[in-house]
Amino acid sequence: MTSSTRHPARRRRAIVILAFAIYLALLAWVVLWKLEVPWIGDAAGLARPLKLVPFVPSGDADANAPAEMVINLVLFVPFGLFVGTLAPAWSWWRAGMAALGASLVLETVQHLISTGSFDTTDLIVNTAGALIGWVVFVAVRRAAGERTPRIMARVCVIVAALALVAAVAFVASPLNYGPQRDVVVERTTSTH
Predict the structure, then answer these.
(1) Fewer CB atoms inside 10 A, N or C side of the chain?
(2) Known InterPro entries for this protein (predicted)?
(3) What whole-number distance in Å separates Cα of residue 187 and Cα of residue 46?
């Protein structure tokens, strides 16, 4: 491979990494703050329940709404596309573990700063979304062969651009979810 053929590949990779960074920043903003101004919830630092049983009501938490699960699934499909593009030799297992790790970080942070609750359903659904993206990458690789890096670089840039446009449109729209206000219940122990 000559240096003239390697240079465009390096430039393409740098562009995909930049697009991935934009996507990850937007993903964190969506998951943690629902595209609102960053804030920390009232219950940050206080003990709160974790939803460890997926898909069903658990403790004080209701079952996950189907629409919320679909949104989480769709939000993580690009993660799998980016992982496939940047690490094409990875197996589905490694791609899934990377998605699970990213989802675990986001779930933990949103719980710690009280902008949401830790929910194992989200871990499962987010990972499934990323694996769907990885499967799409594999399908493109099988169909496109040697053209895959060029095609996937374009796809990744388009995905990041669309995510950016959607975020700007949402912020400019009249929709406003505002910060979640946790109900902080003081628990006292009974001395009966």
Answers:
(1) C
(2) Teicoplanin_resist-assoc, VanZ-like
(3) 11
Beta bridge partner(s), residue 51? 119
On whether the pTM is more than 0.70, the answer is: yes
Interval 154-185: pLDDT, tens: 999 999 999 999 999 988 888 766 555 554 54
Total Cβ atoms within 10 A of residue 32: 18
Bridge partner list, 61: 58
Environment class of residue 58 by beta-carbon count within 10 Å: exposed (0-12), middle (13-18) or buried (19+)? Answer: middle
In the chain, which residue ranges form alpha helices assigned H by DSSP?
3-33, 66-86, 92-112, 120-144, 148-172
**Which range among 14-23, 52-61, 63-72, 161-170 shows the weakest confidence by mean pLDDT?**
52-61
At 154, list the tokens. Answer: 């374009």
